[in-house]
Amino acid sequence: MLAIYMTIDRFDRLILNELQRNGRVSNQELADAISLSPSPCLRRTRALEESGLIDGYVALLNARKLGLTLMAFIQISMDRHTPDRFAHFEQAVERCPEVLECHLITGQSADYLLKVIVKDMDAYQQFLLQTLTRIDGVSGVHSSFVMKSPVRKTALPLDL
User: Domain HTH asnC-type, which positions (predicted)?
Assistant: First the structure.
């Protein structure tokens, strides 16, 4: 896969940092925050969107207030390491609303690491037994439950 990187300058970084903090900021507020006039600020923001550097805008919801109180990281081992087996697994977990993230990993005995959120342990057990372990190719499951999340970020470090 060919990686294509866009060169961004100081104003682009400022725009991206501000939008990561508040995706609902108006163009005028954004322009004021980065000391740029509104017209070039809007042009730059649209260019960042069109380039794909900005994937989209979302609302971050409070899971606990929605009754989603149990988060788990699940290591999944596959029975065969073939592209079709991996593709089938990835398509299956993509359809699961409980799965927040799915990562193909290395350096562990597992092949995948999932981040899952559910209402409670009963809901987790149902997800595990009725969905996850029924996906063809899943040969092992190891769950770790989140007790506390002292660091939780969505912003990417742009100043590195």
Answer: 8-69
